[in-house]
Amino acid sequence: MLLGLRQRPEPARVGALVRVLAEGLPRWRQRPLLVPVPSWKRQGNPLPVLVCRQLVRQLGYRRADLLERSRPVLGQHHLGRSLRLANQEGAFHCRRGPRLGEALGRPVLVVDDILTSGATGCSAAAALECLGWQVVGLLCLARTPRGRSRTDRSPSGP
To answer: How far is CA 1 from the centre of its chain?
Structure first.
């Protein structure tokens, strides 16, 4: 379903997914700042931004487009964990650090659609933390099954 929403975004469906996701979020003293993962493709993945929009609408969180891609990366669906980490290393640049008092106690959440190895989220968090943002987590709509990737399947396996 998420892969289909990447191609044909439906805000109502994303809103329903975010309502379920929001039920499991902790209650912070300050509302988190949401930072969507940007795509390097011209027609990139719209889901991180749509998730942020829904969280702003539903929970009153704030969104800041602090990240930009510093270079294109390889498509990761064929890569294992170690190659994904290497592929994403240094792939993001943070546009600015926190303004005076802006980051004090405010949690920052990196927002993406699907978590596989964590390489994209780790690289995005590292770029933000380098300029002083306090990243407390990665928020995703789904995760791939642990320990099982495309490269792990045998030709005769499921």
So the answer is: 17
Assigned CATH topology for domain 31-146: Rossmann fold (3.40.50)
pLDDT bucket at 73, cuts 50 / 70 / 90: confident
For the chain, give the mean pLDDT: 84
**Residue 117 exposed, middle or buried by CB count within 10 Å (0-12, 13-18, 19+):** buried
Give me 18's structure tokens: 């975010």
Cα→Cα distances 148→75, 81, 123, 154, 155, Å: 18, 11, 22, 11, 14
Q: Please state, in angstroms and rounded to a whole number, the distance separating the CA atoms of residues 3 and 20.
A: 18
Beta strand 108-111 with 33-36 is parallel
Q: Can you give the pTM of this predicted structure?
A: 0.83
**φ and ψ at residue 157, rounded to 5 degrees:** -80, 175
Q: Can you give the residue ranges of every domain in the chain?
A: 31-146
With a cut of 80, say whether residue 55 has pLDDT above it: yes
| Residue 143, both tokens | 């995760």
Sign of CA dihedral 21, 62, 104, 92: positive
